[in-house]
């Protein structure tokens, strides 16, 4: 057995032990034979790219941060394309341009509200390059397996807050938006397009919350208003330990769709940009959300999609099937 495989068996064995009895162990080959090695749930067994420590960290926390993964040149090109779209120099079919409810001062177009997000950029060849970057996909495969669909794309442009705190994003679980399963074969990649810290509204995550269930979501009752589609978890524990993910340009975090996360206000004078894609195994399948807590988002998405595609009747599943794009392997189900 290889040194890495033996080390993984040693680390997995710790999962069934009380934290107070776990002690540091050597990483050299061990001679002990373990009778119990529970299967890791959140990464695939062929995930040779990840170290045993990385796999266990994702198992425990629900996110994994990889430093300096996306090149400066690629980020520059994504920023240039964002500017072209904001200036309306290019029209992208199906793209939703979202604007902050309180920010009138935009970056590129005078006297217009600030573009806070580009959603569904899968028909823009330049931005969609992000979803197919080999350096991203090699990590995604560790969570989804070899057949990979890009299901949901966003370029987030968090504007400076106007004093009404509308630049916040409420704590939420991404699975709330998705009518496909299993959740464990879905992962988000989120790449900082510049330095991201607590001052300009970095991601905030609740480690370990991915091991729970999908919770009820709705619009938060915020005095300054809330942006469209920004649903939040109704009843998470505010005392749950949280981590602020401060990142450098090009750093990328991968996280589980049940991980509770959000972001704070942008208290700087500049815009904070990030680009992201939600991936799913092509072997995932659609489910009905009728009678579940997802009915509210289903209704909202269907209303938007019927206007967007000029269709009177459209199913929640179809809105995702239209957007999904194969980026690796075979399109087996989704």
UniProtKB/TrEMBL annotation:
SUPFAM superfamilies: Clavaminate synthase-like (SSF51197). Pathway: Lipid metabolism; fatty acid metabolism. One of its GO terms (molecular function) is L-ascorbic acid binding. Signal peptide: none annotated. One of its GO terms (biological process) is fatty acid alpha-oxidation. Its cofactor is L-ascorbate; ATP; Fe cation. Its EC number is 1.14.11.18. It comes from the Eukaryota. InterPro entries: PhyH, Phytyl_CoA_dOase-like. It is an enzyme of class 1 (oxidoreductase). One of its GO terms (cellular component) is peroxisome. It catalyses: eicosanoyl-CoA + 2-oxoglutarate + O2 = 2-hydroxyeicosanoyl-CoA + succinate + CO2; heptadecanoyl-CoA + 2-oxoglutarate + O2 = 2-hydroxyheptadecanoyl-CoA + succinate + CO2; decanoyl-CoA + 2-oxoglutarate + O2 = 2-hydroxydecanoyl-CoA + succinate + CO2; 3-methyldodecanoyl-CoA + 2-oxoglutarate + O2 = 2-hydroxy-3-methyldodecanoyl-CoA + succinate + CO2. Keywords: Dioxygenase, Iron, Metal-binding, Oxidoreductase, Vitamin C. Belongs to the PhyH family. This is Phytanoyl-CoA dioxygenase, peroxisomal. It comes from Xyrichtys novacula.
